[in-house]
Amino acid sequence: MNHNVYIYILVMAGVTYLIRMLPLALSKKEITSPFIKSFLYYVPYACLAAMTFPAILSATASTVSAAVGFAVALIAAYKEKSLLTVALMACTAVFIVERIMEII
Fold first, then answer.
1. CB 66 within 8 A of CB 60
2. Among 6, 24, 85, 103, which one has the highest count of C-beta atoms within 10 angstroms of its own C-beta?
């Protein structure tokens, strides 16, 4: 089979463009429904969470250390720490848990 990669890229670009362009082209009026507005506001966050969460659990040597790092990151983020602080605290927690699990 002889596949042309440029055709695949062109089709993917077209589909991506249509998905982003069609809602703008089809809706000429401003959205006034509070439900639709809030739904559209939270969609990016929900998609990001759905893509990130499975990667968090499989990014470390064990699921236990990943869960601990995730919990530490959630607590630090809830206490409104900076992004760098949250990331460093989560990485430190994962490192410590994995070292403890090595000993055990």
1. yes
2. 85
